[in-house]
Amino acid sequence: MSQQNRVLTTQNGAPISDDQNSLSAGERGPLLLQDWHLIEKLAHFNRERIPERIVHAKGTGVYGTFTLTRDMSDYTIADHFNGVGKQTETFVRFSTVGGEMGSADAERDPRGFGLRFYTERGNHDIVGNNTPTFFLRDGIKFPDFIHTQKRNPQTNLKDPHAMWDFWALNPEAMHQVTVLMSDRGIPANYRQMHGYGSHTFSFWNAEGERFWVKFHFKTKQGIANLTAEQADILKGIDPDSSQRDMVAAITDGNFPKWAVKVQIMPEADANTYKLNPFDLTKVWPHADYPLIEIGELELNRLPQNYFAEVEQVALAPSNLVPGVGASPDKMLQARLFAYADAQRYRIGANYNQLPVNCPHATTANHHQRGGAMAGTQCPFSGSQTGGDASRNYGPNSYDGLQDQAQFAEPPLRLDGEANRYSRYDQDDFSQAGDLYRLLPEDEKARLVANIVSTLSVVSEATQNKMVEHFSAADSDYGQRVKEALKG
Ligand code: NDP
Ligand code: HEM
């Protein structure tokens, strides 16, 4: 470290003569307002938090590398999926969903798996979970659902009555409830679990052909879960167990890896396939759309400043790049709005200029110059690389910034009447049953015990409704829950 780097300074860079003793009027006297170094310390301290994320508040972030092992140019023009051997910098934030920033990692809860690729044509985020499905198929229900997962607004306690009441009245949750209550409902850590893009996205290629696509990230560390009893003990001993596990792994050079796979459906198949491929409560069975391995994700570098990089990372399903698009999935459509909106509130209008959010592998050139904490380039320092600093409107005759028509998404045909379609897919149960039937006997027993551990405290009417749903998935499943509730 150079001599200059050892100099303790104030924020304006002035050397500090004494950082341990405040300026007082006499040895025992009161403090002086002119001690602006003290005031800077106290005032900054008061501002060292931003609102925590409304969901997924507790998390762990790591940088890494995605290596493409199969050229995907037949399907997409996206640069990170073109050219075998192509490497792209990534950032992943893992999280739990319902707990606050200080909550325990070993809760029974889905795990967030939010992945960013810093591609040469901008940042591409896949903000998924460790589950291939979700509780809902329409984003209009998301705030209500999350209210049942968070604290009761009156008692400020977690509330199993609200949780089971909501699931009883929303049977489309059955598949995901089964995943959540199964062994995989409490991953042992973030390395030993799969990740899924969960939604259906789209790829398009240079010929303008569109494909529907699902992303899968299969752990190479092997799956490891905790039983409810193990988790209860661990939550007390080490609430930060998953964070600690990841920091230790990366520090030891034991870099975790995931095989990156996709399922691909030609655009026209969506009209005739037996399932609605845009329904987030369902998977595409592998027998119909097999997994195609396309690369490897390795995580290998810890952030330097947790707050700057992990707390302020702004992952968003709307961060898409040419060659990768959205789909008509109603949940995804709601999410395309929600994330950037949350981040403008949580971080500020210019959150994309922060180093972790800035498109590292390219430059951002646009006409949005104002707002809190605006810099002139992303990240903050220097001047905008493209364009003319004096032009903040477009088109203009000076800065040369131009639309890139070659990256236009192919047109998507849309049909139908504008309406609120309440039950566009009646089958809430088959895939929950498929999952139940593939579980080994001991896991079925633990699934039922996990369900009953909280279902047993709610009203009989809600219990009966849930037994009906479990029975609709699989009669043995329903029967066992019913028996266990009597027990
Ligand atoms: P497959 O038999 O081809 O696939 C079953 C899938 O289930 C595999 O991905 C497997 O993952 C996963 N799995 C295995 N054991 C468990 C477990 N104990 N808990 C949770 N998941 C497990 O069947 P289908 O594709 O027809 O799907 C059948 C059911 O499998 C679905 O209803 C769904 O619940 C579940 N599933 C399906 C996925 C898909 O994308 N098709 C993805 C994940 C789950 P692994 O090889 O890693 O053990
Ligand atoms: C975080 C909304 C469904 C995965 C968030 C945040 C919001 C949000 C507002 C906080 C963002 C921030 O402040 O940075 C919604 C809405 C949904 C929805 C409205 C439904 C319509 C889903 C689904 C998944 C998911 C289906 C997974 C498949 C995540 C993850 C994070 C997150 C992983 C944390 C991102 C990070 O690590 O920073 N969600 N969500 N969400 N959501 Fe969702």
Main sheet specs: 10 strands, antiparallel
Please report which band the strand proportion falls in: under 5%, 5-15%, 15-25%, 25-35%, 35-45% or over 45%: 15-25%
Task: Flag low-confidence runs.
Answer: none
Q: Which radius of gyration do the C-alpha atoms yield?
A: 25 Å
Blueprint (SSEs and pairs):
Blueprint: H1 36-45, E1 59-68, E2 87-96, E3 111-119, E4 122-129, H2 142-149, H3 160-169, H4 174-181, E5 195-196, E6 201-204, E7 210-219, H5 228-237, H6 241-251, E8 257-266, E9 292-301, H7 306-311, E10 324-325, H8 330-346, H9 430-438, H10 441-455, H11 460-473, H12 475-486
Antiparallel strand pairs: 1-2, 1-9, 2-3, 3-4, 5-7, 6-7, 6-10, 7-8, 8-9
The structure holds NADPH dihydro-nicotinamide-adenine-dinucleotide phosphate (NDP) and protoporphyrin IX containing FE (HEM).
Protoporphyrin IX containing FE (HEM) is lined by residues 53-56, 59, 93, 95, 112, 114, 127-129, 134, 139, 142, 198, 313-315, 331, 334-335, 338-339, 342-343, 346.
Could you please describe the fold and organization of this structure?
- Helix content is 27%, strand content 15%.
- It has 487 residues and is α+β, with helices and mostly antiparallel strands.
- Helix 3 (160-169) packs across helix 11 (460-473) and helix 4 packs parallel to helix 9 (430-438).
- The protein has twelve helices and ten strands.
- The model has no long low-confidence stretch (mean pLDDT 95).
- Strands 1, 2, 3, 4, 5, 6, 7, 8, 9 and 10 form a ten-stranded antiparallel sheet that branches.
- NADPH dihydro-nicotinamide-adenine-dinucleotide phosphate (NDP) binds at residues 132, 182-184, 194, 283-287, 431, 434-435, 438-439, 443.
